[in-house]
Amino acid sequence: MKLNILIFVCFMAICSSAEVPTDNKLPPYIKICKRNSEALKCVLENIERCRPYLAKGIPRLLIPALDPLNLPELDIVGNNLRIKLKNLKVHNLPSLKVVDGKLEFEDFKLALKLNIPHIYNEFEYEAEGKILVLNFHGNGSGYTNGSDINLDIDAKAHPVSKDGRTTLAVDYVNVKYKATTGKFHVDNLFRDQKELNDQTNRLINENFREFEDEISPDIGKSISSVITRIATNILEKYSFDELFPLE
């Protein structure tokens, strides 16, 4: 479900706490991509080369350990509900795959289509609001499962020259996402009313698409904000010529 995608991208929020080497050398398994017609293929191959290292993290690229990924807190706000997730553990992120992409050097645009076959998340929560026809206010523990998650990312940047060095600054990052199937479960949503809690979990999962649509707008904004911040950190560290030298 959309919650899984938000958690996937929100691992970026803790990247600043990773121990990052002070030099600007790229990891040895990353290939320098020349600024030519083969650049996109090179970028996609680099992403694939990174996958075996994602579980333990890649400090030089500001990527923390991803399996499991521990997140201290995450807020989700929809039209009729507010959920605060705490002590999240996200499993199976390194299974992400790049389905397709497009890279335009003239306009400094990048488009990626990603797929995550399956993600499992555990968390503690505090929540209040209205789900379908039921008002609630509770706290406890929960989990989510998401399968066949598709994520479309469109981003644009512009060059910035300073002290003889040209880097890229992010203009925008737009995110569209969709989970084919998902399951959501929380305990104690209605305090000690177990039967009502079970009925609500069942109702949410029977109306998965409606619930997903309710929370998706704010989740999309959160994803875009976090990617923008982390992309900015990386693009400020490496110059455009270091990342994509001319022939």
What are the key terms here?
6-stranded antiparallel beta sheet, 5 helices, disordered N terminus, Bactericidal permeability-increasing protein, domain 1, 247 residues, 6 strands
How do the helices and strands line up, and which of them pair or pack?
Elements (H helix, E strand, L loop, with lengths): L1 H9 L28 H12 L18 E9 L3 E11 L5 E8 L4 E23 L2 E29 L2 E22 L7 H13 L1 H30 L2 H4 L4
Antiparallel strand pairs: 1-2, 2-4, 3-4, 4-5, 5-6
Helix pairs in contact: 1-4
Structure overview:
The protein is α+β, with helices and mostly antiparallel strands and 247 residues long. The chain has a single domain, classed as TULIP domain (Bactericidal permeability-increasing protein, domain 1, Super Roll), CATH 3.15.10. 28% of the residues lie in helices and 41% in strands. It contains five helices and six strands. It has helices spanning 2-10, 39-50, 194-206, 208-237, 240-243; strands at 69-77, 81-91, 97-104, 109-131, 134-162, 165-186. Strands 1, 2, 3, 4, 5 and 6 form a six-stranded antiparallel sheet that branches. α1 runs parallel beside α4 (208-237). The protein is elongated. Mean pLDDT is 81; it is low at 1-20.
